Amino acid sequence: MIGGQDTVIRTGMAQALTVACRAARLRWPGLVIEDAGTGDRFRFRDAPLGTIGEALLYRDAAAAAAWSAGGQPRGTMIHALPRRGTDITLVTDSPPTGDVAEILDMIRSALKPARTWCFA
Fold it and tell me: How far apart, in whole angstroms, are the C-alpha atoms of residue 44 and residue 36?
């Protein structure tokens, strides 16, 4: 993505990619997940999320096809690069707007570390 913006979310959660995909699917019901390592594409329900190391999240099949054809339609793809147990980097349009901005907010919220409270 030319001129993309990197959003790094620190997390101790090994399932950060699964969380990101679930958040994207809430906004994009036709979500297509591409395994960036193999090029294989999946609908959300069929994606082997535990085995994908890096993913391209497309709004729908039409957006995936447009990106494959060399287009870069704004607001239709998020590049997710998780590092097990440390963080996930999400590359989006700069600045992220609309659905993409909302998806990033949902992912941040879901991966926010839990706070521990102690009352004496």
Answer: 15
Compute CA 9 distance to the chain's CA centroid, rounded to the nearest angstrom: 11
> pLDDT tens digits, residue range 66-116?
999 999 899 999 999 998 768 899 999 988 899 999 999 999 999 886 554
Q: Which two tokens stand for residue 71?
A: 């287009």
Do the beta carbons of residue 25 and residue 44 sit within 8 Å? yes
Q: At what angle do helices 98-111 and 16-27 cross, to 10 degrees?
A: 140
Residues 6+ away with beta carbon under 8 Å from 76? 58, 59, 60, 63, 66, 67
Residues 81, 66, 106, 42: is their CA dihedral positive or negative?
Answer: negative
Q: Considering the entire predicted model, what is its pTM?
A: 0.88
